[in-house]
Amino acid sequence: MAGWLRKRVSAWAAAGTVWTLAFATFLTLMTAWSLATPITAPPDEAAHMVKAAAVVRGEFGGEQRVIEAHHVGVDVEVGFTAVRVPAGYRDLDVTDGVYRCFRNDDKLSVSCRGTVAPSGDTATVITSAGTYGPGYYLLVGWPSLLLTGEAGLYAMRLLSALLCAALLASAVVTVLEGAAKGYSGRVALIGVLTAATPTAVYLGGVVNPNGPEVTAAVLAWAVVVRLVTDEDGLPLLRRRLVRLGAACVLLASMRALGPLWIALVLAGGLVLARPGRLRQLARLRPVWVCLGVAAAAGLAAVAWTMTADTLALPTQTLEQYTPLTSALKAVFDLLPNYLHQMVAIFGSLNVAAPELTYVLWWVMAGCLVMLALATGRAREILVLAALMAGTAFGPLVLMAPQAAHLGLIWQGRYLLAVAVGIPVLAAVVAGRRWSDLPERLRTRLPLLLIGCWALAQGGAFVWAALRYAFGRANQFSGGPLQWSPPVVGWSAALVLPALSGFLLVLLAIRAGRPMAADPAGTAPRASAGPSAENHAVREQEPSRG
Hints:
Elements: H1 2-36, H2 45-55, E1 63-71, E2 74-86, E3 122-127, H3 135-140, H4 143-146, H5 150-176, H6 185-195, H7 198-204, H8 210-229, H9 237-254, H10 258-272, H11 275-282, H12 285-308, H13 324-343, E4 345-346, E5 351-352, H14 355-375, H15 378-398, H16 403-406, H17 416-419, H18 421-432, H19 439-470, H20 489-511, H21 530-539
Antiparallel strand pairs: 1-2, 2-3, 4-5
Helix pairs in contact: 1-5, 1-7, 1-20, 5-6, 5-8, 6-14, 6-18, 6-19, 7-8, 8-9, 8-10, 8-18, 9-10, 9-12, 10-12, 13-15, 14-18, 14-19, 15-18, 19-20
């Protein structure tokens, strides 16, 4: 009895240590972005802050309005929503231009947009996020009820960062725990790190549902890939299914395309799994409960989207994108830009990272993909190829048919929920046979790639910090300080990425040690009769690797 208890406590402690280190690594970096980015600089942040303030005050809808806006070189009619929020939020109104005045200003006078001052009055404010589902805004908007002015806005950012860091930490634990003999935890960790691009980490530290959407997708891919590719039975089943259910609920409720992403993740799992594995899973009741939760979340999201007309198209027709071939050509020309944006682009597509960041990221992703293609099974290579094709050419399918009505509104971050599946899957596949590789390669390559991640993230952060501190014109020449993070200043904001790097070192050291499955075995019994039950129990014995 004492030995059983000691083993179980040891397994829980190991998982807890990994989760804590991963959570702290991501949270410190996201918090640095939260502090070092001026309010409203991130994409659509003003609209999401207004929406959050309205939702937590009970206003889920609002008055619908159609307003002409200038976007990507053309004038388009866009649907907006008018909501009642504290009067201080008037400077975040997306139609008056005040909130965005500094974003392309080379001299960067952030003061031109005013401040969200405390106010006891209410006012009508326009938001472009009025028809979005309320889930994300209920999670992050409530600090606006307790804190006035910009303190409430920064608190919203922190809550979003906490959620995203927790999702990524859970993904790290998922790819590490219960590993079979020969499986490389560090390589699996690199898969999650590569999925957490600077763009994804940046979105996690600001107010935008795209951040939780991407990090929930990383967790969903991690669970599905480990669940269907494991060869050592079904350890840790309940724990993984709880994570998958939570990821699907969040993925469905963040943005309108969430149900589609859930379907793609589950479809990828069906292709990856060998037939025998699917039969094992199909006999287990918790699997069906998890699938039911995912289906219910997806249906609820679809119902909201249809009721609120979230995807409704304007009646306008933009001649430059008709016929469809013209739109296809225009989108095709932008495909490299979309891939660029997935890695590192900040602000409203106007603050880039150094070229080194992009080079290092393609090196990381390329190493994982090449190793997976060299060692993976046919079905794994098929899914990898499908994900890469979908990431590269998805905008042609999703954007080009709508361009005549909406213009070219697509951004690379919109497809990150699909793209993150590539490094997660590739790392798990490559790490499975890691012990068969030459010793120097399997020892040094993971450390080099982890170092690439830290260098790329740090370079991207410093580049953006210089842009906001000195303005575009003086980004590298210095000059008068144009802006600094409130309260903490630049000192604390720059210390946090360094702290994140130190925590990453500790996480990499811990990832090099095996995380065994729960010694007690956590998989439930199957419900298909005594023989199936015994068969399932035998196959659920944890690995002794």
